[in-house]
Amino acid sequence: MNDAIAAYARGLDPQRAAICDRLSQLIDAGLPNATSRIWHAIPVWFIGQNAVVGYTARKQGVMLMFWNGAKFDEPELAHSGSFFVGQIAFDDAAQIDEAKMARWLEKAGTDIWDMVGMRNAFVAKRRAAKAKTKAGAKAKAKAKSRVKTKVRTKVKARVKPRAKAKPRRQAAPRKPSRKPAARKK
Q1: What crossing angle do the helices spanning 3-10 and 14-30 adopt, rounded to 10°?
Q2: Angstrom distances, CA of residue 30 to CA of 33, 43, 52, 114, 141
Q3: pLDDT at 182
Q4: CB 67, CB 113: distance < 8 Å
């Protein structure tokens, strides 16, 4: 058993710790090629880079989750969330049916949801859309500048050249005002 996963179980009350220990033993035996670690604060087993099975301690008991469990065709595994998680809750270690666990783990080891590939495809699609938007904006700006240039040249072509300006006439000299000059006292 992984030391971090053992430490996770030691931090729980005895009843939930017993459930976690039993689940860890069964998962390690059922998925010998899987690697285990604490992922998002819970014990999870991976095949390659894909999460396969994990569990989390709840207020009452422990929730066992299979990342592709909704596709296992097992009525005991309740579908949870927007992906393919199938889960089952245990309140006591005695509730764990070893035959069912072995069947679920066999399915988990062969029917793996490729969440890494799905995430990479999603990121690539988002990047392509962003690049397309950026390229479209550049093309639009370039086309807009071309249109402005064409409009300016057309406007310049329509303007008739001006005739030479006539010289201005000089204003006539001012006549003295008719007001009487102010008297000095």
Answers
A1: 160
A2: 9, 16, 12, 20, 60
A3: 63
A4: yes
Q: How far, in Å, CA of 25 to CA of 181, rounded?
A: 123
Yes or no: say if 85 and 69 are a contact pair by the CB < 8 Å rule: yes
Tell me if residue 16 falls in helix, strand or coil: helix
Determine the topology of domain 3-113 in CATH: Aspartate Aminotransferase, domain 1 (3.90.1150)
CB 18, CB 41: distance < 8 Å:
no
Write out pLDDT tens, residues 66-113.
988 888 888 899 988 767 889 999 999 999 999 999 999 998 888 776
- Cα 31 to the chain's mean position, in Å? 31
Domain boundaries, the chain: 3-113
Q: How many CB atoms lie within 10 A of CB 24?
A: 20
State the pairing for strand pair 62-66/85-90: antiparallel
- Total number of residues shown for the chain: 185
DSSP letter for each residue of 53-88: EEEEE-SSSEEEEETTGGGS--TTSEEETTTTEEEE
- Model confidence at 126, pLDDT cuts 50, 70, 90, reads confident
